[in-house]
Amino acid sequence: MANLAPRILNIVAIAGIALAAAAALPQARGDAPVRLGAPPPAFVARDIAGKTVRLGDFAGKTIVLEWTNDGCPFVGKHYNSGNMQALQRRHTEAGGVWLTIASSAPGEEGYVTPDQARADLARWGAAPSDFLLDPDGVVGHLYDARATPHMVVIDRAGRLAYIGAIDDTPSTDPRDVKTAKNYVAAALDELAAGKPVTIAATRAYGCSVKYKTS
After folding, report:
1. What gap in Å lies between CA 87 and CA 22, rounded to an integer?
2. Domain total of the chain
3. Structural domain boundaries, residue 60
């Protein structure tokens, strides 16, 4: 028990810093509000192949949006443990769509070029349906993405079913993935079973999204 004390204190400290940073960020600047049970804000973005991608392209499918930052240790926790990739594969193999999004501005942590994004996908063995680049922060602001990872689940009827953290353990330790409650996995399971999502909104933890400031 004594050996666990430093680790527990570290987790608590990191959680406090992450949540405080998220709370200090500005409100979303999108015109369409993000409301549970309502249609999510529509968007258009370029993927890493230069293709134009519209949210409406995936109508009738369950969609997961994942905000990422390759320099964020909270994101690293979920990729270094294999947690994010496993969830991506499970969802896409079941016929769903998974869109990874980078909303960091040029020159900021988490900004990636198409080649850098492809390198990240290869390094992590990631398996999203597509990787979208949002350097102006338009999509991120629409969904009030304040921390990475920020997660959104949209059901087949085109309604916002979940928004917030990936799980309930705001730490950077990959070992915590095994004992954490994964909110995204739970939401997808409930939707697949035709049930309402029990926990539909939480506060995302992690590194603040490094938006363009001017």
Report:
1. 24
2. 1
3. 4-208
